[in-house]
Amino acid sequence: xxxxxxxxxxxxxxxxxxxxxxxxxxYGMPMDWTVSFRPGSRFGPNRIREASLGLEEYSPYMDKHMxxxxxxxAGDMPLPFGNPAxxxxxxxxxxxxxxxxxxxxxxxxxxxxxxxxxxxxxxxxYPDLKVIHIDAHADLREEYEGEVLSHSTPxxxxxxxxxxxxxxxxxxxxxxxxxxxxxxxxxMHMFRYDVAEPLEKILPTLAGENVYVTIDIDVLDPxxxxxxxxxxxxxxxxxxxxxAIQLIAESNIKVVGADLVEVAPNYDPTEQTAIAAxxxxxxxxxxxxx
Length: 290
Fold this sequence. Notes:
Blueprint: E1 24-29, H1 44-52, E2 58-59, E3 64-65, E4 71-76, H2 84-100, E5 104-109, H3 115-125, E6 130-134, H4 154-162, E7 167-172, H5 177-186, E8 189-192, H6 196-202, E9 210-216, H7 238-250, E10 254-261, H8 272-288
Parallel strand pairs: 1-4, 1-5, 5-10, 6-7, 6-9, 7-8, 9-10
Antiparallel strand pairs: 2-3
Helix pairs in contact: 1-8, 2-3, 3-4, 6-7, 7-8
């Protein structure tokens, strides 16, 4: 992959013209090859970019203007359609290049399996890595109907890679009994239903740590984000997720990378999901990129 060629498609608002000028790189992973219910998240990254055109450039949450952070939108990766194994390899190689350039990687999905190769690359760069996972689903399956490469498996794979004690899941309200049993017995940290309140209690224990944050848009209640592949009733509000992003920004942890996944715009003709996602990306850029 090269970053020295101009991306001809839509870019996130106020993207710098070259990667050299940036501290962070936004990149899209248009993959939904393993979804078990409704496909369409491969269209998410571009809709998030389009929705960003309606954003204010100032954030009252962070008290910062987008001029204060430098980032480059590299566009979407050209992933091999229908081939999850090769797609994972290419995402891994892409993120390795970003880390070699000392850039903060901010990925847009795509299904949640795309987070797995990113976490692999991040762990090689930061062997002491911790992961904050914000989602409706546990994603702790070992396989889905015999397929080990599935959007329901990335957090189980992460636990096996970095140790379950280094994984913190928030907002969880869906999964198999076996997934919740694994969370109880493995030593991982799972917080059901809510995000901001338990996160506020946990963040001080992670002070000084290198942390990767992965956010699945379906942590929101479908009333706030209907445009996702596996919507789950009983979720949090957009306001609570904004508060969670702010809490992370105000904490003493070192966020070393992040992603936002599972926006599937075809199921939301109002575009409220993409609009919300673009605002979350703005806050992540302003709050987490140092």
